[in-house]
């Protein structure tokens, strides 16, 4: 029997039960479940892992609660610059975009870079030109406007502060969305998408679109999508490091995820988490923060979404 599996995340951080109203908690869980189901149903119908992770991430990008696509945070200039990447474990093909403005679903654009261009990583205006050539949907600034994100930005606007994710400045919450999946053909894939940090400037790009840092997939080992303080995940080459520990140190998926999240990232003060899946259908959701928006579902009947630790 096929052991199709999928896991998703919607960001990690100081997410405590009293930081969310019951209503907001319900909304987050509903958004997570919808995204989880979108990917899982694709897998059930025989779609590839790439199609499944794209479907889940599109669902999260279209939900204003998460910092990606529609819910992306504001840059110092009051725009929304988005980053995303996707990778197939079958042949190590990958596509990524950074700093794109107006593109409705950056994850779809990443997949087009992977499948329709000779390149892996396109940025800024060039990536937007490519999106237009490919017929991608664009949205106006209004579409990306969110009251909460706007307030977050106003609280740091004009300063040198940047803020990770979606609540008050004191809280550390990281906002990015991601999915990893195993399909019925035995292939795995990973997808990650983000609006990055509130008030970011100078063309700041985090780990999410960087293959090996915030996103990685290899059928030999595992598929990983990360969320957290991007600068640290880049320095730790976090996603690739998980894969590398499985491949070269013979660690189990869980051992490798724990080593990277609780030791290697922690050692350099990197906060956040990651999700991973391997070709046997093992799923791992690991974070070193108080919470992580997350979900997992598989053919054995596992089907759950969670927020707190
Ligand atoms: N890792 C993302 C970035 O640094 C942010 C996040 O996950 O919250 O852009």
Structure description:
The chain is α+β, with helices and mostly antiparallel strands. It has a single domain, classed as Glutamine Phosphoribosylpyrophosphate, subunit 1, domain 1 (4-Layer Sandwich), CATH 3.60.20.30. Helices cover 33% and strands 26% of the residues. The chain is built from nine helices and 15 strands. The protein has helices at residues 22-44, 49-61, 106-116, 124-133, 141-144, 147-156, 230-235, 238-248, 253-267, and strands spanning 5-13, 82-88, 94-100, 121-123, 163-164, 173-174, 177-182, 188-194, 197-198, 215-217, 223-228, 272-277, 283-287, 291-298, 303-308. Strands 1, 2, 3, 4, 6, 7, 8, 14 and 15 form a nine-stranded mixed beta sheet that branches. α3 links the parallel β3 and β4. The longest helix is centred in the N-terminal third of the chain and has 23 residues, at 22-44. The chain is globular, with a radius of gyration of 17 Å. The structure holds aspartic acid. Residues 11, 164-165, 174-176, 194, 196-197, 206-208, 214, 227-228, 230 line the site of aspartic acid. The site of aspartic acid has 16 residues, from β11.
């Amino acid at each position: 029997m096929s052991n199709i599996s999928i896991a998703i995340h919607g960001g990690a951080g100081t997410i405590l039960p009293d930081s969310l109203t019951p209503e907001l908690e319900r909304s987050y869980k509903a958004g997570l479940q919808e995204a989880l189901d979108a990917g899982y149903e694709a897998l059930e119908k025989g779609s590839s892992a790439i199609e499944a992770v794209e479907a889940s991430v599109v669902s999260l990008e279209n939900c204003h609660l998460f910092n990606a696509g529609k819910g992306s945070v504001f840059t110092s200039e009051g725009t929304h610059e988005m980053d995303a990447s996707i990778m197939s474990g079958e042949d190590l093909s990958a596509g990524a975009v950074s700093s794109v403005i107006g593109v409705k679903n950056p994850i779809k654009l990443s997949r087009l870079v992977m499948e329709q261009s000779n390149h892996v990583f396109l940025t800024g205006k060039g990536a937007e030109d490519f999106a237009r050539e490919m017929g991608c949907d664009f949205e106006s600034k209004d579409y990306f406007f969110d009251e909460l994100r706007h307030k977050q930005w106003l609280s740091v606007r004009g300063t040198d502060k940047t803020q990770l994710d979606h609540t008050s400045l004191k809280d550390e919450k990281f906002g990015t969305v991601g999915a990893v999946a195993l399909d019925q053909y035995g292939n795995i894939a990973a997808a990650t998408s983000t609006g990055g940090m509130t008030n970011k400037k100078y063309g700041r790009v985090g780990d999410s679109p960087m293959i090996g840092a915030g996103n990685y997939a290899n059928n030999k080992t595992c598929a990983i999508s990360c969320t957290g303080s991007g600068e640290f995940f880049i320095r730790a080459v976090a996603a690739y490091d998980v894969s590398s520990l499985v491949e070269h140190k013979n660690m189990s998926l869980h051992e490798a995820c724990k080593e990277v999240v609780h030791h290697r990232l922690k050692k350099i003060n990197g906060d956040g988490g990651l999700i991973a899946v391997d070709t046997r259908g093992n799923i791992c959701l690991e974070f070193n923060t108080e919470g992580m928006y997350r979900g997992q579902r598989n053919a054995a009947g596992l089907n759950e979404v969670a927020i707190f630790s």
